[in-house]
């Protein structure tokens, strides 16, 4: 999860001079000096002297955390690969079993928070495979390491302090706190600031333990989604079927929603060929694998899912897994088999598109919304299918512009 509600609070309280002492990972002396700075910040935030004296000085720098933070894949996963790795038959089957096992509790949560059970189980499945892997990295060490690295020091300094506050509030020991290399913890992988703000006591034992209590984790997920603006009675979206002459320049823009009636007017139909629902709901259209792959109409709850994780592919995976857990079938159009995208090809496309006057954003090899928008404009200008996807023919035409 990515919420950072305490960020402004800490930014206002902590002097810039203190943050400036947080230096890139280097010698042990630098890390020790950084821990001293973090102690000062934590003291100002109300962390007890006992924790500051007995816990912080003993933290260890984790070089593997820096390595993982810096790792950049040579290839980018295609939509088909991404979905196949996350919405597996085993995960669907296990999700259905857990939905039945916790049905009464989950329905109570729906009554209180408005989030249907299958979505909570889907988040649980994608985050930790239903608690099968919570992560084994020492949370305080990981966060201190990242706080003492210049790349995202401010963010992780605040998360580190939030972790100490969490430790104090819940009477935790350092060994209790393990999770991902980036500091996310528990069945639903909350960052410490999210744990502090959104986690709730779901099992009624007077504590909030996202590591050991499934009820606490599921209730906290429901509370978080409600806080993000989950709209009861509205699904995440749906797979749809597009006509052969569909104008793909209308797709791929989450901020440009149209009424379902307007999409129906463009020939968009349900994935089984039936008519779209006759309801007053606005939706955007995504084609994550380009015009040859599946298409999805997405509703406002899709944006809520993306506030949990800022990835369109993740949000589609959550929605599709939730549908499957609730008894739905696989994608009607299947998942297009595509070659992995080479990161260097995306970087070259971004560089060339920017030089040609199309704003593709930073040259980082990430296929984000700015890059897809620039690709769409370039494709339109060159009489290509404007789906915003870097298929081989589009990359080939872009490469000819780069060589001029």
From TrEMBL:
Any single Pfam family the record assigns to this protein: SLT_2
Superkingdom of this protein's organism: Bacteria
One GO MF term: peptidoglycan lytic transglycosylase activity
The Transglycosylase SLT domain, residue ranges: 31-323
Biological process, per Gene Ontology: peptidoglycan catabolic process
Keywords annotated in UniProt: Signal
Gene3D superfamilies documented for this protein: 1.10.530.10, Bacterial muramidase (1.10.8.350), PGBD-like superfamily/PGBD (1.10.101.10)
Peptidoglycan binding-like domain span: 344-397
Signal peptide as annotated in the record: 1-20
NCBIfam families membership: MltB_2 (TIGR02283)
Name of the protein this chain belongs to: Membrane-bound lytic murein transglycosylase B
